[in-house]
Amino acid sequence: MPQVKIIQPLEEQVKWLRVAAYVRVSSDSEDQLNSFSVQMEHYTSLIKDNAEWNFAGIYADEGITGTASDKRESFQRLLRDCRAGEIDRILVKSISRFARNSADTISITRELKQLGVSIYFEKEALKAQAVAARSYALKKIEYNKDNEYDVVDSVLNQVYLDNYYLKEAWGNKYVDNINKLREAVNDTSLEYLDYNGEVIDALFFSTSNGYTENSSLVFNIDLPYLQSVTSMWDSSTSSAFRSTKKISSSDFYSSLGLEKSNILNFKVLKRSSTNRILNLSINSTEFTGRELYDKLGLKSTDFSLKQDGDTIIIDTVGYGHGVGMSQYGAEGMALEGYSYKDILSHYYVGTSIKKLLN
């Protein structure tokens, strides 16, 4: 009788990212050394607390200037380990930690990218947000010059969360998080986005569907710096990239002012070039994509509908109105080593960064 050999299935190998951090302070003053210690602790816990990361070490240069990268022993050791294929991602506070010299920084980041090593300049996305938020607030001050207020502290303008709320939400991470925000604000002090001599209306939102949207299709105003651009990073950085909402058919039809039906006839009549729905019909009644976004509280106008018994299932891609800077897209760009200036110039087409006069 022939023998039967049982071949066991291969176990799927899970590949965790080997993540390291680079820390540098340029002097041995007490304040700098305290910052050095805090950064070491921060990155150690940040990496070790991530279930999908393997701790590849902290590389630290203490009391050494960033002008000459070849004189920083730990930095050179970091580069050697990357070249040896031992590291997949580097976390670093800001782009200036690599080198003060722009040519050196560009050369190093290009080499690491070619080696397949991603770099996360931790503060760059926050700095981009700081400049965008400051620009947005300045524009609102212009718009509201005849009112008793400058900015509304809700989703209508910019949501404001006070320290009491943040302490409750962040718990023991409050001090670390608030210091990062303050550093981002201070590092970009007085900077704003300009287009043809005017402060721009720097709109931003959470998560794109892979593209940002033209302002004319969402807010009926065509601004040259708020045009559609690619944002391919969101799918890997945002947990809200894809989401599903389920509501009862009664609530669904009631919210839209329609008679309840056991059959859902959903047709997309027109999409934008970014795949967001501009016009649609439900059981022969026409709506705009924005109307459903508002009436049903959807996360995006890139959505699909289906009915399952007495439940309407709505799948969406992206989160927010889609105009301007994607915050999770900015996070993804920072992960790939882009500076805050790169991020802002990508999402706000044709703009430049200027400084307010003191």
Q: Which SSEs are present, and which pair or pack?
A:
Elements: E1 17-25, H1 30-48, E2 53-62, H2 73-83, E3 89-92, H3 102-114, E4 118-121, H4 122-143, H5 163-170, H6 174-187, E5 191-195, E6 198-199, E7 204-205, H7 215-219, H8 234-237, E8 242-248, H9 249-255, E9 266-271, E10 277-282, E11 285-288, H10 289-295, E12 303-308, E13 311-317, E14 325-326, H11 327-335, H12 340-347, E15 352-355
Parallel strand pairs: 1-2, 1-3, 3-4, 7-14
Antiparallel strand pairs: 5-6, 5-15, 8-13, 9-10, 10-11, 12-13
Strand order of the largest sheet: 2-1-3-4
H/I helix tally = 12
What profile does the largest beta sheet have? 4 strands, parallel
Span between termini: 93 Å
Low-confidence blocks of residues:
none
Q: What portion of residues is helical? A: 25-40%
The gyration radius over C-alpha positions equals 24 Å
Query: Hey, roughly how much beta strand do the residues contain?
Result: 15-25%
Elements, N to C (H/E): EHEHEHEHHHEEEHHEHEEEHEEEHHE
On the 0 to 100 scale, the average pLDDT is 87
Number of strands: 15
- Category from helices, strands and their pairing: alpha/beta
Cα shape: globular
